[in-house]
Specification:
single chain; three-stranded mixed β-sheet; globular
Length: 692
């Protein structure tokens, strides 16, 4: 007995000596260690002697402890004890904090409801985001999501989809989304407008269920087919490709040169086979192609975005900001960490498909300040001022040297912050759950004491069993998710409040390796997804031409002018030869509030009349660009003129166009905002009516 007591005493003294020595070292730093800590703090080794556990006064400032003291203390401690860990906890908080973690997680799940999610395939983030760019990427993702729940007849492959409904599933305003829907390019590999909308009836879209192979993968496959088409059969080549799917997935955007016209028409592997092996599309070939595409795109491997994120934050973030968060969450990290390292901005520029200045601006928004250390924690509540810093935390890892790329790391939050709208409800639930849990605990303890009577040993054993059970439950909660709101991404073994703050962004609710069809929502109906188009479909081309001015449906526009069918036909050729002058008169007539702007424009073109230079300058931009500029607010235009355009990364091209305009043209453009020109463009764009 004496020996055991002596051993315990020696162990305690040894831990205290290590702690007091560390305190003396830290007092030489600017941390301003309280003098009373020499007496008010205690230290002991954990059961396996792997961690020095230090208890500090309960009133110690938590932010100071986490962000300033702990990071520096770990550095000093690690210099003397490189195989051990330092754990610091506030006195009297361990049991309460274990309970708090479980309650927070329960309330978090109740508010965020992580089971309601939208799966977006990792292949989309890794290979289509760089090709499409952020804005069209989110339009495409929204189109795929809405097509699952849109109302349609059972046997129909057409989806009536409103742009206002789409806007709920994308970080874009309704007007911006409408513009992107009518732009050509790779987004038309995912959906195609089949029927225009009218009055309250939304347009109908054909949305393909299968994710198309990215263009750089198709070109790589085509090059291989060209190489072996004279030596092997189509089936043999496809079987060879099946053995090289990993190699194909490693082909990144920019690794192969793409033909300039590749975006004009959706292409598949079957298209390539039919081109190089005409008449050789058998059932076996079709099955091999389906298997190949499935193994490359891996549609069941996805990142799951909670509905909560869409409802609360899509309007708060730009397309590039949203893309950065979810691209980083989609990255596979073998070390299971929540941190990604970069050298320079080129890799992010390529990954997001954005301009060369955009990544630098994005990283600046989530860069740690000099006062914040590596132990910074995520705040429970969403803060609009923090912008991207609610989800990402960046830090430079090397000194700036001219001519050398900056190296930096980005830490990624695995859970969502609680929106300000929900904080009162969140705190009320936390309080209610804690009170209920504590009442239950007290009732259980009273019952245990009644049953055991005066047998203190039995009561003590029961309490130990309860503590062991609670400890294991807390540990299990930590392994699953960690502290739901305050993860510091410290992967060291820790206990108490500061030690339950671990997390894992890869093995989290954002990843879904199961069948995505069952994880969308309760309205998912796979039968509503149209089949892949036939390779013989003559209407497969996405580069649709229209009558007259290519950006609008000229028939429809002339119809607004009350021209009859035969009259419209005669006017088409005249307007096609004088497109810029016709548009210049349209712009001028709207600005001058002419009564019949379309008919007056036609009359002036017929008579050969010319208009002022500023209107011609605007007309040279085309219908779409002038409409976009007309929809920009006066405040935004003023910011662009002053060169304060850093917050408009999604409109870089439009800003450059605006800056090149002359002062008279800018003046007329400011007047155009109050006219009906933008709505005229929206109503007039579209395909040529059939039969004309």
């Amino acid at each position: 007995m004496i020996d055991n007591g002596q051993n315990n005493l020696n162990e305690k003294v040894s831990a205290d000596q290590v702690w007091l020595s560390l305190l003396e070292d830290l007092k030489q730093t600017p941390l301003e260690i309280p003098e009373t800590w020499t007496k008010e703090t205690k230290a002991h080794w954990d059961s396996e002697e792997l961690s020095l556990v230090v208890t500090v006064p309960h009133d110690t400032n938590k932010v100071w402890l986490n962000r300033r003291f702990l990071p520096l203390a770990k550095i000093y401690f690690g210099q003397q004890h490189d195989q051990k860990h330092l754990v610091v906890q506030r006195k009297g908080r361990v049991g309460q904090d274990d309970l708090l973690v479980r309650v927070q997680r329960s309330v978090y799940d109740q508010i965020v409801d992580p089971n309601k999610i939208v799966p977006v395939q990792i292949y989309m983030f890794q290979h289509w985001l760089p090709v499409l760019g952020a804005a069209p990427f989110w339009v495409t993702a929204a189109m795929r999501q809405v097509s699952f729940v849109a109302i349609a007849e059972d046997d129909s492959v057409l989806k009536p989809i409103s742009s206002r409904v789409l806007a709920k599933w994308a970080p874009l305003k309704h007007v911006q989304l409408s513009e992107w829907l009518n732009k050509k390019g790779f987004s038309s590999w995912f959906y195609k407008k089949v029927k225009d909308g009218y009055e309250d009836v939304p347009p109908e879209y054909n949305v393909w269920s299968q994710i198309p192979l990215a263009p750089h993968h198709l070109v790589w496959i085509e090059n291989l087919i060209k190489q072996f088409k004279d030596e092997e059969s189509a089936a043999s080549i496809l079987e060879s490709l099946l053995d090289r799917t990993g190699e194909i997935r490693r082909v990144k955007p920019g690794d192969v040169e793409l033909p300039s016209s590749i975006s004009e028409k959706r292409r598949t592997v079957l298209d390539l086979v039919s081109e190089y092996f005409p008449g050789n599309i058998s059932k076996n070939i079709s099955e091999l192609e389906n298997q190949l595409v499935h193994q490359i795109t891996r549609p069941n491997l996805s990142v799951t975005i909670p509905h909560y994120f869409y409802k609360k934050y899509m309007d708060e973030l730009s397309p590039n900001e949203t893309a950065l968060i979810w691209y980083l969450r989609s990255l596979y990290r073998e070390d299971e960490s929540a941190e990604v390292h970069f050298s320079g901005y080129r890799s992010l520029e390529t990954a997001l498909g954005c301009g060369n200045r955009t990544p630098q601006r994005l990283i600046a928004k989530c860069m740690l300040s000099s006062e914040e250390g590596e132990g910074n924690s995520w705040e429970t509540q969403y803060s609009p001022e923090l912008s991207l810093s609610n989800w990402l935390s960046a830090e430079f890892t090397n000194e700036y040297k001219k001519g050398s790329p900056r190296e930096y790391s980005i830490k990624i939050r695995a859970t969502e912050p609680i929106h300000n709208d929900d904080m009162v409800y969140y705190n009320r639930l936390i309080k209610g759950h804690l009170e209920t849990s504590l009442d239950t605990k007290n009732d259980n303890e009273e019952g245990a004491q009644t049953r055991t009577g005066g047998t203190h040993n039995q009561t003590g054993d029961a309490q130990k069993d309860q503590e062991t059970k609670k400890g294991s439950e807390s540990e299990g909660a930590q392994i699953r998710t960690g502290d739901a709101q305050k993860q510091t991404w410290d992967t060291r073994i820790q206990t108490g409040e500061e030690q339950t703050q671990t997390g894992n962004p890869r093995i989290s609710e954002h990843y879904n390796n199961s069948n995505t069809n069952k994880s969308l929502n309760e309205y998912f109906n796979n039968s509503l997804i149209p089949p892949l188009p036939s390779i013989d479909d003559p209407d497969l081309s996405t580069d649709t031409t229209v009558v007259g001015v290519k950006e609008i449906n000229l028939d429809k526009l002339l119809g607004f002018g009350s021209y009859k069918h035969n009259e419209k036909k005669k006017l088409v050729e005249l307007i096609e030869k004088n497109q810029e002058m016709f548009l210049a008169w349209i712009i001028r007539n709207h600005i001058t509030a002419a009564k019949f702007p379309v008919r007056l424009a036609v009359k002036n073109v017929q008579e050969g009349n010319t208009t002022e230079d500023q209107y011609l300058e605007l007309a040279k931009l085309g219908w779409e660009i002038t409409a976009q500029l007309a929809s920009v607010s006066e405040n935004d235009l003023s910011m662009w003129e002053l060169g304060l355009d850093d917050d408009y990364e999604d409109q870089e091209e439009l800003i450059q166009v605006y800056k090149k305009l002359s002062k008279p043209a800018r003046k007329e453009l400011s007047k155009q905002r109050e006219t009906g020109y933008y709505q005229l463009y929206i109503n007039a764009r579209g395909e040529k009516e059939k039969g004309v």
